## 1
Amino acid sequence: MIEENPMRTTSTLARTLAVALLAGAACTGGTSTGDDSVGDDDDTPVDEWDQKLAEREYDYSAALRIASLRLTGKLPSLAEVKAVADAGDLAAQKVVYESFVRNYLETPEFSVQMVGFWRDTFKMGESAMLDTAPVFAAQLTVENRSLSELFTATAGTCPTFNPATGEFTAADCDNGVTTHAGVLTNPGVQAHFFSNMAFRRVRWVQEAFACTAFPAELMETGVDLGGAQAYTAPWPFESIAGASNGGTVDFHDTSAVVCANCHATMNHLAPLFANFDDAGELQTTIQVKTPNDGAPDAKLSDWLPAGEATAWRLGVPAADLPALGRAMAADPKVAECAVARFWDWALGKGDIVDTLALVPSEVIAANVAAFQASGGTLQDAIFAVYTSDDFVKF
Ligand code: HEC
């Protein structure tokens, strides 16, 4: 598959399904008049939503159908459908429904679905090397292991998967890395998102695990530097390289856009990924280029001035990829992003970044808190979403 920009790749099937489901049963807002033009109603949208949400009723039969499709790729069996329908009152239906959801999570089909989910999330897969990262994430999910292992595991980070049996076979990545850091050191990730100055790898990390496009760090009040826009990143402006402090790309440019709004964070991350070559092998020297004439190799001074250290965020230094992994594992925004991605998947929305299918923090606050309290166990998080009121009420 040749893609000019792999970050925009999503499975067409997943997208089509998501759109179809969004237009259908899983969407609670589908009964409006169809006239959403500005100024045609006096109600604030919040009131309208609150009212619609309050009108929803439990429907475990409908929920079972969607849960089965998402978690196993198949419709529920007739016996399952009847068992829920004939269970009796809502409390009894809930018990039966939840036991079926538990069962789905134990099937080989669920493993297959998880590989698909993480391929879509990571925007990569379907070749042996490109599958290692999504398969590792799927294995963590199926085995109810912690999200933090996705960024901190030092062994078994390139497993293989047998779709016929749903079995994972642990294997180490073999790309020259001494201490692995989950998917952050994965050869497929490094190869697939190879680009000038390693910025595409950085973008992948941000969008897959923090669920927003750059800029990643925003101050409420920007600083007017006399440019096209205000400077809104919290970092000192001179903490990244530019024409005035030794860089060959001017990240201090403010004439059309303020590069530093995004690149303040990005330039503190990119050097961590710079020594992987286009095949995903770690080398001892920088392997990425600048877009300058002749495509020279990038130098550390192209991202950061002398003495400036790499970091995940301002105040969260990360000297190497294992340190970055620990920082990400400790970031509540990363935990919230994982829950939000499960949420959007369950409710049939598209990719959270591409479609701006943002889940308001307060809607999933309880799920995120439970997720963090559990130590970030991934299958528990999925069970919680599929059994939450928002999933089983229509
Ligand atoms: C809104 C955020 C944002 C702003 C503002 C921004 N960039 Fe970037 N930049 C990115 C992202 C994200 C990428 C990685 C894109 C990809 O490869 O998918 C990138 C990539 C790059 C690259 C590598 C592109 C290549 O492959 O050749 C350079 C060089 C760069 N930016 C310089 C700049 C400069 C100089 C400015 C200001 C004039 C700027 N950027 C403004 C987000 C931004």
## 2
Amino acid sequence: MKKLKFFYILSILLSLNACHPSHEQFKNDASLADLKMPNNHLNFKEIKDYQNYKMIAAHYRTDKNEIRYILGNKKAFEAAKNKAPFPDGSKIVKIGWTVEKMPDFQTALEAKQLKRIEYMIKSRKEFSKNPGNWGYARFVKENGQFEPWQKGTQSCINCHNLVKKNDFIFTKFQTLQ
Ligand code: HEC
């Protein structure tokens, strides 16, 4: 049974990666709110064109029961694909969704609610003091509204330090073939 569950989660992730998120899923976020992170002032609008970013990978976090899409702007996508260093201006976006059982196929899960949009942006100038020169921002969605993450970004930095050897990025480029 465990094996089956794993298989279905895997097939969801693969199908998510194969097709772009539908317009329907994103329609509420077409114009992003003017929101800033409390400590570094990164704005949600910094990634205003994220719907055109390319999929780098899809993850499933078992403790949070969330599907995550990892998208990159052109610079980040190309660097991830070519296993090259991320240049200044790289933007990596993570979108988290809760999941629920598909009503017509109970062992399959599908995305339910968008919970978070977060990003990392590389800037030697703006984030000269941060490890890897990455700036972090997280916007969480509660009751249909996005809010900046009030706890700031030190915890982001601390945890991403685990993957210092990979330029502080957990994601590996997920090949489509
Ligand atoms: C306790 C550990 C932890 C903390 C704290 C954390 N992250 Fe992450 N982050 C991860 C892990 C693990 C992944 C990869 C799995 C996933 O997609 O959830 C990840 C992935 C990401 C990615 C995609 C790029 C990558 O590194 O793979 C972004 C963007 C991101 N996090 C932003 C943030 C921001 C912004 C914060 C703070 C508000 C934050 N993270 C805090 C563990 C953490």
